[in-house]
Design a protein that fits this description.
Blueprint: E1 3-6, H1 13-22, E2 26-28, E3 31-33, E4 38-41, H2 52-65, E5 69-71, H3 75-84, H4 95-103, H5 107-123, E6 128-130, E7 135-137, H6 152-160, E8 163-167, E9 173-175, E10 187-190, E11 199-201, E12 204-206, E13 216-222, E14 226-231
Parallel strand pairs: 1-4, 4-5, 7-10, 10-12
Antiparallel strand pairs: 1-13, 2-3, 6-7, 8-9, 11-12, 13-14
Helix pairs in contact: 2-5, 3-5
The structure holds manganese (II) ion.
Manganese (II) ion binds near residues 44, 74, 76 and 192.
Protein name: Bis(5'-nucleosyl)-tetraphosphatase PrpE
InterPro entries: Ap4A_hydrolase, Calcineurin-like_PHP, Metallo-depent_PP-like, MPP_PrpE-like, Ser/Thr-sp_prot-phosphatase
Pfam family, one: Metallophos
Length: about 240
């Protein structure tokens, strides 16, 4: 199987378009197509960026209608899902931009996008195990001993990463560097933590290069393991990028 795995898009639809063009996809009827390859998404397709709902439409179309791609949810997807279910969620940390787009729609369009996203979210696994277990795609990554398992612990890990329950002085959750101690045979491709350049450690690939914070939108070509990026048009926000030693 030949895949192009795309990092956190966060509503950066134009950057996504540019990236797929660079990857050799042809856009037909507002959808990227390639004769030999499929797209995969590491989650967090919405929030903060300018065109979150367009990304929902597109990922729904690729994954659910054409059955020609893979998607796993991120923490932002989980929160939007709960918002669409009518749960009491805080419309902050970027969700406000997606909700503003949604509130601008007519009633019929609202129902349509809400139902699509709910269906996409509920149909998608917490993480994908692909290519005869050689490849795992999970939003915030996954530990070796959680692969193949389900449940709340797995859900928390793949959505939020290896969190300790403590918070940093800036209010963000403390995340352990699980990749550093990963020694499994499967390649793990993930996003969630913005880094200036893709971070490759022990057969794990963090491809969230902070498109929505003015970094790049990155794709990992599998099985070639080639990294391809396009620069973002968003303003650069230095402090959003995590540095690793
Ligand atoms: Mn995330």
């Amino acid at each position: 199987m030949k895949l192009d795995i795309i990092g956190d898009i966060h509503g950066c639809y134009e950057e996504f378009k540019q990236l797929t063009n660079k990857l050799g996809y042809e856009w037909i009827d507002d959808c990227p197509l390639h004769s030999e390859r499929k797209l995969a998404f590491v989650g967090d397709i919405t929030d903060r960026g300018p065109q979150s709902l367009k990304m929902v439409e597109l990922v729904y179309s690729i994954v659910m209608e054409q059955k020609n791609g893979y998607y796993v949810p991120g923490n932002h997807c989980n929160k939007l899902y709960r918002f669409f279910l009518g749960r009491n969620v805080q419309v902050t940390h970027g969700l406000e931009t997606t909700v503003a787009e949604y509130e601008d729609l007519a009633k019929k369009e609202k129902t349509n996008i809400r139902e699509k996203f709910i269906r996409l979210y509920e149909t998608s696994p917490l993480y994908h195990v692909l290519d005869d277990k050689k490849l795992v795609i999970a939003h915030a990554g996954i530990k070796e001993d959680l692969i193949g398992k389900q449940g709340e612990k797995v859900k928390t890990f793949v959505l939020y990463g290896d969190i300790t329950g403590k918070t940093n002085p800036d209010g963000t959750p403390v995340r352990r560097d699980w990749a550093k101690t990963y020694h499994g045979p499967a390649t793990i491709v993930y996003g969630h933590t913005p880094v200036k350049d893709p971070r490759i450690v022990n057969n794990t690939y963090n491809i969230d290069t902070g498109a929505v914070f003015g970094g790049n939108l990155t794709a990992l070509r599998y099985p070639e393991m080639e990294l391809i990026s396009v620069p973002s048009s968003m303003p650069f926000v230095q402090e959003k990028f995590r540095l690793f030693e």
